[in-house]
């Protein structure tokens, strides 16, 4: 009896701040690296386009359509993928996703025309579907609400870091030739290999649930499981919701529409940024280095804004302000008289767009749990990712019609502002609903 009591420390003896740090050190570095690789495989086609478009006969419009087809495949497979992950576990399913997208991304290097390019991008979207919402769901299994936005923002640092690291690497790889392959082909192949390797490593690194974590002490497991269970029970009592209800809930649908606007800005600008910078008169060899600068600023903004949002208050105000800042930056980039000031304005835009990503996901996690969370989060991501199709296509068509990037950037800035206004309206309605529940008639 005495021995059993000694093996399990009392729950009050666990320092929860140290526990959260321990979890972050164990879980987030690996997921962060996976997201860096994921984002590289998603957007490196923007650098490949510097030589690929002429090589396989892509116009600005056909590149925009082909690049955007990734997100159509992503949209179709997102919700089923998240529901399957709930059944088979995060470890196995995330590993499958990574291996699949790595193989498809490498195969894209061998396309020979617009149709093959579009098919490859669509298949890449199908293969990668479920990774990001799956990780969001996985983080909700581990991190209490008090630290979830911080954990999410650290994971999502993969976006700017992928661009900071990947931009100069991609810019260099696209210059090389050898073994019968040209630079854009080497770029796609070499940046796809880490996904396959990490997919295999995932099987040995991730733990599906806190209850199974042998790297936590019994007392730490007890405290964490109890905290998460209490939060889940409180949310289900306040917002009881089935999967079917979540998929037609007005908050979920509004958040999906907001995310659609945000991703038009994020991926529309991200996929075209190398060509925007090249149009400023810079050589291809330095485009990659310059393209990394906005994402350095975005990385700092993401961490700072994620920490600020965890201090409490209305969760909706933070992503709304972020989208508004993105709109200001894109608008300013069309008005600047010099290339240097244009880069500064693009830095402001990326700071806004990236800090939105760090704070947005704290909003749905405040009212979704269980299968409702799996389906609702996947729906928000999948509808939002249709913006990944619309954004590149919109910019491509408007650039072809107008002859430059001014009109498309103004249009995307307006869409970001619309997203900010919708988020403010959502926050206002949530506050009204909360008051109505607290003070019944």
Automatic annotation (TrEMBL):
<feature type="transmembrane region" description="Helical">
    <location>
        <begin position="56"/>
        <end position="77"/>
    </location>
</feature>
<dbReference type="Pfam" id="PF07690">
    <property type="entry name" value="MFS_1"/>
</dbReference>
<dbReference type="InterPro" id="IPR020846">
    <property type="entry name" value="MFS_dom"/>
</dbReference>
<feature type="domain" description="Major facilitator superfamily (MFS) profile">
    <location>
        <begin position="27"/>
        <end position="431"/>
    </location>
</feature>
<feature type="transmembrane region" description="Helical">
    <location>
        <begin position="186"/>
        <end position="206"/>
    </location>
</feature>
<feature type="transmembrane region" description="Helical">
    <location>
        <begin position="98"/>
        <end position="117"/>
    </location>
</feature>
<dbReference type="InterPro" id="IPR036259">
    <property type="entry name" value="MFS_trans_sf"/>
</dbReference>
<dbReference type="InterPro" id="IPR011701">
    <property type="entry name" value="MFS"/>
</dbReference>
<feature type="transmembrane region" description="Helical">
    <location>
        <begin position="27"/>
        <end position="50"/>
    </location>
</feature>
<protein>
    <submittedName>
        <fullName>Major facilitator superfamily MFS_1</fullName>
    </submittedName>
</protein>
<feature type="transmembrane region" description="Helical">
    <location>
        <begin position="407"/>
        <end position="426"/>
    </location>
</feature>
<dbReference type="GO" id="GO:0016020">
    <property type="term" value="C:membrane"/>
</dbReference>
<feature type="transmembrane region" description="Helical">
    <location>
        <begin position="252"/>
        <end position="273"/>
    </location>
</feature>
<feature type="transmembrane region" description="Helical">
    <location>
        <begin position="341"/>
        <end position="363"/>
    </location>
</feature>
<feature type="transmembrane region" description="Helical">
    <location>
        <begin position="375"/>
        <end position="395"/>
    </location>
</feature>
<keyword id="KW-1133">Transmembrane helix</keyword>
<dbReference type="GO" id="GO:0022857">
    <property type="term" value="F:transmembrane transporter activity"/>
</dbReference>
<keyword id="KW-0472">Membrane</keyword>
<feature type="transmembrane region" description="Helical">
    <location>
        <begin position="317"/>
        <end position="335"/>
    </location>
</feature>
<feature type="transmembrane region" description="Helical">
    <location>
        <begin position="285"/>
        <end position="305"/>
    </location>
</feature>
<keyword id="KW-0812">Transmembrane</keyword>
<feature type="transmembrane region" description="Helical">
    <location>
        <begin position="123"/>
        <end position="142"/>
    </location>
</feature>
<keyword id="KW-0813">Transport</keyword>
<feature type="transmembrane region" description="Helical">
    <location>
        <begin position="154"/>
        <end position="174"/>
    </location>
</feature>
């Amino acid at each position: 009896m005495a021995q059993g009591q000694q093996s399990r420390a009392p729950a009050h003896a666990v320092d929860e701040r140290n526990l959260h740090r321990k979890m972050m050190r164990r879980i987030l570095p690996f997921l962060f690296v996976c997201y860096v690789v994921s984002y590289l495989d998603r957007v490196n086609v923007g650098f490949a386009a510097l030589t690929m478009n002429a090589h396989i006969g892509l116009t600005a419009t056909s590149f925009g359509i082909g690049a955007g087809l990734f997100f159509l495949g992503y949209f179709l497979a997102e919700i089923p993928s998240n529901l399957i992950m709930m059944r088979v576990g995060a470890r196995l399913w995330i590993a499958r996703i990574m291996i699949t997208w790595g193989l498809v991304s490498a195969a894209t290097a061998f396309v020979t025309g617009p149709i093959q390019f579009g098919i490859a991008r669509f298949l890449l979207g199908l293969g990668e579907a479920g990774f990001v919402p799956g990780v969001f769901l996985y983080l909700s299994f581990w991190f209490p609400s008090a630290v979830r936005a911080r954990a999410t923002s650290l994971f999502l640092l993969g976006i700017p870091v992928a661009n900071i690291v990947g931009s100069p690497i991609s810019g260099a790889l696209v210059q090389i030739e050898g073994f019968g392959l040209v630079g854009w082909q080497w770029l796609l192949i070499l940046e796809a290999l880490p996904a396959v390797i990490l997919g295999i490593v995932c099987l040995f690194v991730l733990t599906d649930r806190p209850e199974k974590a042998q790297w936590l002490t019994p007392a730490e497991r007890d405290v964490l499981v109890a905290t998460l269970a209490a939060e889940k029970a409180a949310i289900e009592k306040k917002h009881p919701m089935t999967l079917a209800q979540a998929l037609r809930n007005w908050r979920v649908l509004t958040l999906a529409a907001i995310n659609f606007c945000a991703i038009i800005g994020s991926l529309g600008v991200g996929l075209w940024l190398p060509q925007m910078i090249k149009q400023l008169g810079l050589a291809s060899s330095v485009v990659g280095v310059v393209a990394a600068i906005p994402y350095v600023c975005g990385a700092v903004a993401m961490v700072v804004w994620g920490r600020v949002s965890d201090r409490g208050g209305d969760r909706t105000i933070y992503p709304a302000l972020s989208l508004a800042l993105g709109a200001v930056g894109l608008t300013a980039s069309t008005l600047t008289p010099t290339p240097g000031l244009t880069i500064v304005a693009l830095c402001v835009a990326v700071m806004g767009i990236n800090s939105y990503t760090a704070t947005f996901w704290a909003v749905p996690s405040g009212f979704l749990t269980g299968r409702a969370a799996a389906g609702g989060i996947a729906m928000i991501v999948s509808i939002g990712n249709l913006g990944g199709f619309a954004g590149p296509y919109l910019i491509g068509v408007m650039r072809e019609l107008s002859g430059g990037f001014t009109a498309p950037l103004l249009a995307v800035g307006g869409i970001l502002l619309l997203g900010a206004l919708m988020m403010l309206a959502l926050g206002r309605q949530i506050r009204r609903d909360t008051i109505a529940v607290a003070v019944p008639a």
